[in-house]
């Protein structure tokens, strides 16, 4: 079970996973060595699975952020899964979900034309419902 200090550590790492252990320790009132030991324990216990970066999509030319709810008519999802794996340049996440849909795709596209091409190809494998992100708050 996580204690208060572990939760503080996770909060600081969410803000900046590149923080030094010395800086992390100062923020959570531990020595750098004690903070490093806590982080190692969180990693060993599978609490921290990986460290990632957040990329600015528009600066990379990926200005269209879309969520696509996938509805499968067939029980065989493998062709859809194979298609999604070929679209890594656009697909950020493919979540298996409960509810009306079967999957929820999170994607980023450089243009409406590329989004349209993607949706035309996707329609060979599944029906979908599209939502475009207007702003992130």
Automatic annotation (TrEMBL):
Protein name listed in UniProt: Transcriptional regulator
InterPro entries named in the record: AsnC-type_HTH_dom, Dimeric_a/b-barrel, Tscrpt_reg_AsnC-like, Tscrpt_reg_AsnC/Lrp_C, WH-like_DNA-bd_sf, WH_DNA-bd_sf
Domain of life of the organism encoding this protein: Bacteria
UniProt-recorded Gene Ontology molecular function terms: sequence-specific DNA binding
Domain HTH asnC-type, residue spans: 2-63
Annotated Gene3D superfamilies: 3.30.70.920, Winged helix-like DNA-binding domain superfamily/Winged helix DNA-binding domain
GO biological process: response to amino acid
Gene Ontology cellular component list: cytosol
PROSITE patterns referenced in this protein's UniProt entry, alphabetically: HTH_ASNC_2 (PS50956)
A Pfam family hit: AsnC_trans_reg
Keywords: DNA-binding, Transcription, Transcription regulation
């Amino acid at each position: 079970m996580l204690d208060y200090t572990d939760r503080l550590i996770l909060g600081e790492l969410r803000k900046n996973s590149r923080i030094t252990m010395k800086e992390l320790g100062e923020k959570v009132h531990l020595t750098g060595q004690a903070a490093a030991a806590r982080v190692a324990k969180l990693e060993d216990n599978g609490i921290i699975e990986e460290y990632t970066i957040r990329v600015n999509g528009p600066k990379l030319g990926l200005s269209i952020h879309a969520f696509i709810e996938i509805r499968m008519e067939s029980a065989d999802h493998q062709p859809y899964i194979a298609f999604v794996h070929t679209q890594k340049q656009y697909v950020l996440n493919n979540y298996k979900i409960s509810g009306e849909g079967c999957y929820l795709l999170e994607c980023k596209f450089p243009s409406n034309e590329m989004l349209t091409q993607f949706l035309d190809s996707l329609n060979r494998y599944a029906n979908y419902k599209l939502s475009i992100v207007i702003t992130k708050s």
